[in-house]
Amino acid sequence: MRPQNDTGATEQPQYGLQLMDDRPPGSSEERRVDAEIAETPGSGRCWQCSSWPCSSRAQQEAEKKAPCPGLGMFYMLLSAFLFSVAALFVKKVQDIHAVEISAFRCVFQMLIIIPCLIYRKTGFIGPKDQRIFLILRGVLGSVSMILIYYAYQSTSLADATVITFSCPVFTSIFACIFLKERYSLWDAVFTVFTLTGVILIVRPPFLFGSSVEETDRDYSVHLKGTFAALAHTVFAAVTLVVLRKMGKSVDYILSIWYYVVVGLMECVTVLFILGEWSLPRCGLDRLFLVLIGIFGLGGQVFLTKAIQIEKAGLVALMKTLEVVFAFIFQITFFNKVPSWWTVGGSLCVIASSTGAAIRKWYQSSH
């Protein structure tokens, strides 16, 4: 006798394959399959939220990738401090030519860059269509480095540092000429402010009279140092235009590699011509040379990291801290208080670079 259901109808036996699963949702079999899927690497399905892909995992990964608030500003603070300390060491080493200091820095940085290139697997030559720009970046960058080291040795630390902040003005001019970028009225205003600040720092006799030369016995050396710093900003501006031309097609480690290799060859050639090669006699000078290379590379690395995670306007504003460190180091280690001309010129240059940074920041946020 066949069994009957609750309605009295005779229950029919089921033959063949079962086409539909009558098990309720959340049965043990479904939970087992979901658990296997969730444990599968890269499946993206989560046992917590049963969503596809997992929303909680995506949120955790986003939080993990998000940079810490203020981390870029901290990197920029470290970069400004390391660059200022390296400049202080250059100023301390007075018995070695600026070209030789640049050569030692290239050697120490090369020893650090080579393992980085091997680890990142970027190669040592670079893309074929970018090699001419890489070589040009190395030549211009090394000349800029030699000039600023000569400026540190010839003039005050504060004057040389302040003049270097006129670099954005020349960069905008060269970018307008070579890259056809727009040169606005605000750029012209910032240029006037910067040139005014540089004139106050240089104090040329044809504008300030012969009393300047009588007051400052080493005025000729000071004049050479300030012009070297100004030439440094020009070469640095052209270098930035070349880097902007290459864009992201070249790894920044490879760019630094060309900078140290071409710079070393250039420094050795100049030293051979001048006959200025001499090993440092004092052990403290040797230590300073090592620290110049380490601190200089550290400043470049933290500057690059700051640019990667922070807006360019904020990075430019934080970079002005180098002037503050330069004034502090000059008063502390050399017992030389900057003149009012230097303070006034510094305010003009800093106002120009700060205004340009705020303008770029405003344009990027709107």
TrEMBL record:
Ranges annotated as spanning the membrane: 73-90, 102-120, 132-152, 158-178, 185-206, 226-244, 256-275, 287-307, 314-334, 340-358
Membrane topology term: Multi-pass membrane protein
Pfam family of the protein (one): EamA
UniProt xrefs under InterPro entries: EamA_dom, EmrE-like
GO CC aspect terms: endoplasmic reticulum membrane; plasma membrane
Compositionally biased intervals (Polar residues): 1-15
Swiss-Prot/TrEMBL keywords: Cell membrane, Endoplasmic reticulum, Membrane, Repeat, Transmembrane, Transmembrane helix
GO process annotations (BP): calcium ion export across plasma membrane; regulation of cytosolic calcium ion concentration
Domain of life the protein comes from: Eukaryota
Chain intervals for the UniProt region annotation (Disordered): 1-32
Family: Belongs to the TMEM20 family.
Function per UniProt: May play a role in intracellular calcium sensing and homeostasis. May act as a negative regulator of plasma membrane calcium-transporting ATPases preventing calcium efflux from the cell.
Name under which the protein is recorded: Solute carrier family 35 member G1
Protein's organism: Sus scrofa (Pig)
